[in-house]
Amino acid sequence: MTQTYWQDAAADEAMQEEHGFVWRAMLDTIDVDPTGKRVLDAGCNQGGFLRLVADRFAISEGFGYDPASGAIEDARRLAGARPLTFEVADTVPEGWDGFDMAFSHEVLYLLHDLPGHACGLFDALAPGGVYYAVIGVHTGSPVMVKWHRENVDALNLPPLNDIEDVIAVFERAGFAAAAARLAVRFVPAAGHHGHGRGRLLDWLDYYYDQKLLLRFTRP
User: Fold this and answer.
1) Does residue 138 form part of some domain?
2) Using CA atoms, how far apart are residues 74 and 78, in angstroms rounded to an integer?
3) Which CATH number belongs to the domain containing residue 162 in this structure?
4) What is the model's pLDDT at position 58?
5) d(CA 210, CA 206)
């Protein structure tokens, strides 16, 4: 996995606040109840999504990995008494398996080895387990096509994928694939208009139509 964009605790906390409305939309869209489940978060960053899942659904256990060591240090500190485990890794750590559910938020577009990621998640899930992956950075999103073009070299990004190609990779790994649009409600205006950020209407199109929740089910 390409290094995540974690820089420091303050910047990461601000980023997690910005993503909160998307995380809630993810949980409002999924069709499996996480209560009592073993849950994996691929590219967990500072662990905010797993904390939200643990607090909202009383999961049995949550595991998250991320290549950013500073983010993982914060994730461990912020976990409190929740049943959460975090490791520094760029793929599913050895021995992590038997998960009922897995999640990722804007991780797939960062990966230079998407087939390896798909196979790793397949092996990590129990039979019947589900991997929910949010992706908005793809060829069908005009806002993100522009962003990718401007950042591909600086961030060492792989070529931009088409959604059909992403789905094909996971199907070859053995998953049954499906897709949904996120149940996004209000999009915060702050950070999504003016000062070089574009038009709010463009961002609404992005969140309502182009930012997708892919569901990959292990048979």
Assistant:
1) yes
2) 6
3) 3.40.50
4) 94
5) 5
